[in-house]
User: Fold this.
Amino acid sequence: MSTLHLRQKLAYDRQPAHDRGGGLAQGFVALRHRNYRLFWTGQSISLIGTWMQTIGQAWLVLELSHNAFILGSVSALQFLPVLVFSLFGGVIADKLPKRHVLVATQSSAMFLAFALYALAAAHVVHIWHIFILAALLGLVNAVDTPTRQAFVVEMVGREDLMNAIALNSSQFNAARVVGPAIAGLLIGWLGVTPLFLLNGLSYIAVVIALLLINAAELVAQPHVSAVRQSTIQQLREGLSYVRHTPVVLIIIVLVGVIATFGMNFNVLIPLYAADVLKIGASGFGFLMAAMGLGSLAAALTLAFAAKQPSMRVLLLAATAFTGLEFAFAASRWVLLSALLIAGIGFAIIIFTAMANTGLQIASPDHLRGRVMSVYATVFVGTTPIGSEFTGGLASAWGAPAALVAGAALCAIALLFTWPARQLQVTAPDPVLQLPMEEEEIAVGTQN
Assistant:
């Protein structure tokens, strides 16, 4: 990145919020960026399909096995590659143009959705097919997740990042309402097969949107380093930044524990619907939609009210999430369970949006892909550990006991991280925005 471009970008990031609109417009300020509008629109369509397939795949596994451990194993296989390879995905995100990487990953995910549809439509699908396709999708997500997370700030800049992440959460959770609701109806009417076809078709929208993005309008341009580093050296550089930056390290640790042990909804909610509340596939879709409504409400709250991430708010949201999980585990009433899971959805979106925004703001441009790959590893990649933990406990003791155990571990993590509520989330020193060789030149000039 040139010094001129760096100065232009920093000036943009420091532009006062009142110069960017207020009132109702403030809630949608990130959409004034053409590139982000394209990306957001394409993702809005694709995510509905993703949620439909999530519901369909979980119900298909239950139909084929009715085994909580197998359901957890499918989830584990889908996320295990993220745990193993996401750090390398962060290196790719920092080295290559993110838009090109995302076109490749989204196209690959589309192909896998069509493959599952073909198997289901031919009535030849078996559990091992789902295992293989889940693992392949995990490989795709190992690159896609850190790249997609780090790409947002390139489209909108730091000042609008909180709003963009809130709008991303809004679309994600609007899709969580619409997708499961449609999926529940279609499963009862036509079975699970059409869900996989519709998901495959939905990827077309996001691929087209990515192709239409104007790379020249991105706030941060891809950097080609003059200093050659091995992949291991690049990984070490990113991990060192995480380890030596307290606010980043605390967020990563807390996200890792809560995501691993507290957020295994794909394993537990189908079991709750089938075995605890006894409300079937439609009830499963209803519970997931209730969580989506709570999450959507949280995302809209952030879009209109939050300007910068706060460690205190992050920790309060994590505390509310943990308490609501304990309450949900004790509930046997469908309406109360729906209200509690809506509250869980609200709390977890506040928590994850604060964490995501905080990490991106606190990361230098040339390290953001690697920092977000660590986030992806602990947030998504540890799902196999959590899925096997939760699935095993649910098989032995039931879904409520598994939920209580996970919530208890989250509570312990909160006890250790609560003192960090006083930390401030700030952008790194401008010198740290430069890659290694430019940083050395800048320091030498100052001296």
